[in-house]
């Protein structure tokens, strides 16, 4: 016996451009960002979420098919839908991002020579701002 399984598909919020040049540019950028996001899954030094969100944003402006596929994706879909609906980020993602930024910044302070320490302070300031921004967003 087979069970009837209901499949729910999220309806994409698209704002497609009417210009073919703009659409093709966004399709291409979407694929570049998507590939960078996949590389980020494999490499710990590269973020995944920002690139996947950028891909979704590009495809929302260029291709209903790619955008629909991405927002209904098994792994990335919920994250994108939460962002599109409420600009919400999961709490574990906020903590993970903050921990990784802290570790990366600490390594900069340790690795950079004394005359370049200003770079580490600049990165620390930017990372602190990003962490504050993340934790001000609603939890998904």
From TrEMBL:
The chain crosses the membrane at residues 21-43, 91-110, 116-135. It comes from Psychrobacter namhaensis. Keywords: Cell inner membrane, Cell membrane, Membrane, Transmembrane, Transmembrane helix. It is a multi-pass membrane protein. This is Inner membrane protein. PANTHER family: INNER MEMBRANE PROTEIN YBAN. It is found in: Cell inner membrane.
């Amino acid at each position: 016996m087979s069970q009837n399984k209901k499949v729910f598909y999220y309806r994409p919020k698209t704002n497609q451009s009417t210009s073919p040049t703009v659409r093709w540019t966004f399709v291409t950028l979407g694929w570049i960002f998507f590939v960078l996001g996949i590389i980020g899954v494999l490499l710990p030094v590269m973020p995944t979420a920002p690139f996947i969100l950028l891909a979704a944003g590009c495809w929302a402006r260029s291709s209903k098919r790619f955008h629909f596929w991405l927002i209904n994706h098994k792994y990335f879909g919920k994250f994108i839908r939460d962002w599109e609906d409420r600009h919400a980020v999961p709490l574990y993602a906020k903590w993970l991002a903050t921990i990784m930024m802290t570790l990366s910044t600490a390594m900069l302070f340790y690795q950079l020579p004394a005359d370049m320490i200003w770079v580490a302070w600049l990165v620390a300031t930017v990372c602190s701002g990003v962490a504050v921004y993340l934790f001000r967003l609603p939890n998904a």
